[in-house]
Amino acid sequence: RKEVEQDPGPFNVPEGATVAFNCTYSNSASQSFFWYRQDCRKEPKLLMSVYSSGNEDGRFTAQLNRASQYISLLIRDSKLSDSATYLCVVNRAVNKLIFGTGTLLAVQP
Amino acid sequence: DAGVIQSPRHEVTEMGQEVTLRCKPISGHDYLFWYRQTMMRGLELLIYFNNNVPIDDSGMPEDRFSAKMPNASFSTLKIQPSEPRDSAVYFCASSFLQNGELFFGEGSRLTVL
To answer: Residue A15 CB: number of other CB atoms within 10 A?
Structure first.
């Protein structure tokens, strides 16, 4: 079983839709959590950190459920420019960021 | 500001050849990471350095892989001899905080025939 698991998708949604991704992690000792975004044939970039109380950044909302060991990302009012792969990332130990294989989002006009 | 700079961007080589990938981290960043990305396995951490010292190389697949950081502005990842299964995109990343945001280079796409 992979340490960080994501549904690979693709998620095909129309512009303006709300879409949610989930991610599960296996190591209960994990301390910090992130979502990175990776455009096709580009490098990953930090989208947002995920805090225990949940956090929002514009149209993006991230939530953490430590008891169930899952992390979610909600995107409201999807834009064409949101099309990318979203990587769930867990910090297993000091400087050991473990990346999921990503969920592909395709926003259709 | 210049980001993380990697070279070469693309490399095609034959099995058995030596491959050297290069990375210049962002100035002032104390941490440097080498990752490998494939479709099947996603992003895997190979090794990371703090202040030019290798801290964790447990992700290095085997002895054919080696990494060095002779100074704060330069690192290399070497594969000798290369094999077709080494084909992947190799990313270098740096950060200035422990457990901080990673800033990735554009990657080096390696194809071993």
So the answer is: 12
